[in-house]
C-alpha cells in the first residue's frame, strides 16, 4: 500500500537518468522529500553517453548530407576562386567536443531544475541494504558512506553496453557506443558489429561524416525489429550511399591488429578495418546493488520484474527504465518513473500502455512507429486495413529533394479506427505525432482525413493516407 501522506514521505531514487529525474520531479511536486543518487552525472547514460550524444552526432552527419542534396536542387558551393567545392569535411575532434559540450549542458540544465524544486542530488554508488534503507558510497576517495532512509525507493540504474569475451573493447580501436566520443580522428574504415537500432544509426552517422563503413548484420536485413518495408528502405539507402552491408553474417571475434582491427565471422570470413564499433545489445545494471538480497525478483536476463505501475515484488520498491527491460526508450523510462511516483504517493495514475508508445530510429531517413505492426496484421493478431503511401509523390517532398520514404497507416476493419502507423522520412520523429494522437484517442481515419493540413507539407501525406482508408457509412 502506498504511503498515506505524500508530504511526509521520503523518496530515494537510484539513478539520475530519465526514469530517475522525471520520477523525482513528480515526487517533489506531490510534496515528498526526494533524494537522487547518481554515480556518473545527472541525466545518466541517456544524456551523457547515449541518446543526446548519439543524436547530436547523427544531426551533424545529416547536416553534411544536405550538401549532397543541395546539388540536386541546383545549389553549388564554390571557393573564392570560383571552383566548385565537392566535399564537406568533418573535423571529428571538433564534432566530439560539441557533442560532449551539449550533453554536459543538458545535464547541467536537468541538475538545475532538480535543485529549483528542492530535490537533493548525491554523487555516489547506491545499494539497497533493506527495502527502506539505501547505502551510498561516495565517488571521491576519503568520503564517508551515507545511509538514507526511505518510505519509497525507485531503482532506475539503466543498462550498459554488452561486452563479449571474444570482442573486448579497448577504447581505442575496439569501441562501444559510449566510447566513440574520445576518438581523435575519423575512422578510415569502420566495422560496425550489430544492425539493430544503435548499430544502424551510428553506421550511417559515420558514413555521413566520411568514414568507409562495413555493417555486420547477423540477420537477413538491417533493423530486424522494425517494420519490414521501412527496414528495406533504410538498407537500400545504406547501399546506395556506399555502405557495405554483410547480411546473415554473425561475428565470432574482434581483435586488434598492428594498424587496426580484424573481425572474424562464424562462417570463416574475415573483415578488416581501422576501428570496430560494437553494438551487440545491452545488459541491465542490476547486479551488486542489493536487489536479490532484499527479495526483488529478477528475470533470467537480469532485468527487474515490474508490473504496469512499476512495482517490483517488494513492497515500497519500484523500478523504471532500461533496468526493467520493458522497452528500452528514454520516453518509456520517464513514463515508468512518473507512474511509479504517482502510484506510490497516492496520486491518480493510469497503468503503462505500451500500445501507444511512439518510437524513432534516427537513421536518414528516420523510421517512426506507433501502435500495431505489420507483423500483427500478417499473423492475423489484428484485423486491420493497411495503406502505404510513398513520399516521393508528396509535393513538399519533391521540393525538399526527398526520394525515399513513405507513410503507412493501419486502420481497424469496420470502425476505421487508427490503430498504428509507420513514417519513413526526414524528421519522421516529428511527423509521427499526429498518428500517435490518433492511436492514443482512437480517432478513425475519417476524423484524421477531415483535419486541415498545410499545403504543401509532408504531414499532408498522413491525411491523404487516411482519406484512402475511408470507411463508407
TrEMBL record:
<feature type="binding site">
    <location>
        <position position="55"/>
    </location>
    <ligand>
        <name>FAD</name>
    </ligand>
</feature>
<dbReference type="GO" id="GO:0003955">
    <property type="term" value="F:NAD(P)H dehydrogenase (quinone) activity"/>
</dbReference>
<feature type="domain" description="FAD/NAD(P)-binding">
    <location>
        <begin position="10"/>
        <end position="337"/>
    </location>
</feature>
<dbReference type="InterPro" id="IPR036188">
    <property type="entry name" value="FAD/NAD-bd_sf"/>
</dbReference>
<dbReference type="Pfam" id="PF02852">
    <property type="entry name" value="Pyr_redox_dim"/>
</dbReference>
<keyword id="KW-0274">FAD</keyword>
<dbReference type="InterPro" id="IPR001100">
    <property type="entry name" value="Pyr_nuc-diS_OxRdtase"/>
</dbReference>
<dbReference type="InterPro" id="IPR016156">
    <property type="entry name" value="FAD/NAD-linked_Rdtase_dimer_sf"/>
</dbReference>
<dbReference type="GO" id="GO:0050660">
    <property type="term" value="F:flavin adenine dinucleotide binding"/>
</dbReference>
<keyword id="KW-0560">Oxidoreductase</keyword>
<feature type="binding site">
    <location>
        <position position="281"/>
    </location>
    <ligand>
        <name>NAD(+)</name>
    </ligand>
</feature>
<comment type="similarity">
    <text>Belongs to the class-I pyridine nucleotide-disulfide oxidoreductase family.</text>
</comment>
<keyword id="KW-0285">Flavoprotein</keyword>
<feature type="binding site">
    <location>
        <begin position="194"/>
        <end position="201"/>
    </location>
    <ligand>
        <name>NAD(+)</name>
    </ligand>
</feature>
<protein>
    <submittedName>
        <fullName>Dihydrolipoamide dehydrogenase</fullName>
    </submittedName>
</protein>
<dbReference type="InterPro" id="IPR004099">
    <property type="entry name" value="Pyr_nucl-diS_OxRdtase_dimer"/>
</dbReference>
<keyword id="KW-0520">NAD</keyword>
<feature type="binding site">
    <location>
        <position position="322"/>
    </location>
    <ligand>
        <name>FAD</name>
    </ligand>
</feature>
<dbReference type="InterPro" id="IPR023753">
    <property type="entry name" value="FAD/NAD-binding_dom"/>
</dbReference>
<keyword id="KW-0547">Nucleotide-binding</keyword>
<feature type="domain" description="Pyridine nucleotide-disulphide oxidoreductase dimerisation">
    <location>
        <begin position="359"/>
        <end position="465"/>
    </location>
</feature>
<dbReference type="Pfam" id="PF07992">
    <property type="entry name" value="Pyr_redox_2"/>
</dbReference>
Amino acid at each position: 500500500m502506498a504511503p498515506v501522506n505524500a508530504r511526509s514521505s521520503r523518496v530515494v531514487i537510484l539513478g539520475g537518468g530519465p526514469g530517475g529525474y522525471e520520477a523525482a520531479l513528480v515526487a517533489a511536486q506531490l510534496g515528498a522529500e526526494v533524494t537522487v543518487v547518481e554515480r556518473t552525472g545527472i541525466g545518466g547514460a541517456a544524456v551523457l553517453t547515449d541518446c543526446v550524444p548519439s543524436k547530436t552526432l547523427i544531426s551533424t552527419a545529416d547536416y553534411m548530407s544536405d550538401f549532397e542534396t543541395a546539388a540536386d536542387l541546383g545549389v553549388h558551393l564554390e571557393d573564392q576562386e570560383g571552383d566548385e567545392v565537392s566535399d564537406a569535411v568533418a573535423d571529428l575532434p571538433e564534432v566530439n567536443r560539441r557533442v560532449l559540450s551539449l550533453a554536459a549542458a543538458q545535464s547541467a540544465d536537468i541538475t538545475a531544475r532538480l535543485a529549483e524544486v528542492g530535490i537533493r542530488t548525491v554523487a555516489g554508488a547506491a545499494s539497497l541494504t533493506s527495502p527502506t534503507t539505501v547505502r551510498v558510497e561516495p565517488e571521491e576517495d576519503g568520503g564517508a558512506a551515507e545511509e538514507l532512509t526511505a518510505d519509497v525507493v525507485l531503482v532506475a540504474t539503466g543498462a550498459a553496453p554488452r561486452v563479449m569475451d571474444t570482442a573486448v573493447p579497448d577504447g581505442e580501436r575496439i569501441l562501444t557506443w559510449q566510447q566513440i566520443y574520445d576518438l581523435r580522428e575519423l575512422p578510415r574504415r569502420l566495422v560496425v558489429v550489430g544492425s539493430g537500432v544503435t548499430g544502424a544509426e551510428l553506421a550511417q552517422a559515420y558514413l555521413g561524416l566520411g568514414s568507409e563503413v562495413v555493417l555486420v548484420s547477423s540477420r537477413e536485413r538491417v533493423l530486424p525489429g522494425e517494420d519490414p518495408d521501412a527496414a528495406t528502405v533504410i538498407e537500400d539507402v545504406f547501399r546506395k550511399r556506399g555502405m557495405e552491408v554483410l547480411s546473415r553474417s554473425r561475428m565470432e571475434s574482434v581483435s586488434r591488429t598492428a594498424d587496426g582491427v580484424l573481425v572474424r565471422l562464424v562462417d570463416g570470413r574475415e573483415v578488416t578495418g581501422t576501428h570496430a564499433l560494437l553494438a551487440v545489445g545491452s545488459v541491465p545494471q542490476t547486479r551488486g546493488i542489493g536487489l536479490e538480497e532484499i527479495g526483488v525478483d529478477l528475470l533470467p536476463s537480469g532485468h527487474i520484474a515490474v508490473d504496469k505501475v512499476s512495482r517490483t515484488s517488494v513492497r515500497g520498491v519500484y523500478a523504471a527504465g532500461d533496468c526493467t527491460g520493458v522497452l528500452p526508450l528514454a520516453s518509456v523510462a520517464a513514463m515508468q518513473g512518473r507512474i511509479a511516483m504517482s502510484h506510490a504517493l497516492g496520486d491518480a495514475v493510469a497503468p503503462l500502455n505500451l500500445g501507444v508508445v511512439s518510437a524513432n530510429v534516427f537513421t536518414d531517413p528516420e523510421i517512426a512507429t506507433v501502435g500495431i505492426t505489420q507483423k500483427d496484421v500478417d499473423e492475423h493478431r489484428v484485423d486491420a486495413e493497411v495503406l502505404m503511401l510513398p513520399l516521393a509523390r508528396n509535393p513538399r517532398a519533391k521540393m525538399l529533394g526527398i526520394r525515399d520514404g513513405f507513410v503507412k497507416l493501419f486502420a481497424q476493419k469496420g470502425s476505421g479506427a487508427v490503430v498504428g502507423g509507420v513514417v519513413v522520412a526526414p524528421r519522421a520523429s516529428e511527423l509521427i505525432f499526429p498518428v500517435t494522437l490518433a492511436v492514443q484517442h482512437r480517432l478513425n481515419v475519417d476524423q484524421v482525413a477531415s483535419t486541415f493540413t498545410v499545403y504543401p507539407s509532408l504531414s499532408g501525406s498522413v491525411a491523404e493516407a487516411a482519406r484512402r482508408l475511408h470507411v463508407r457509412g
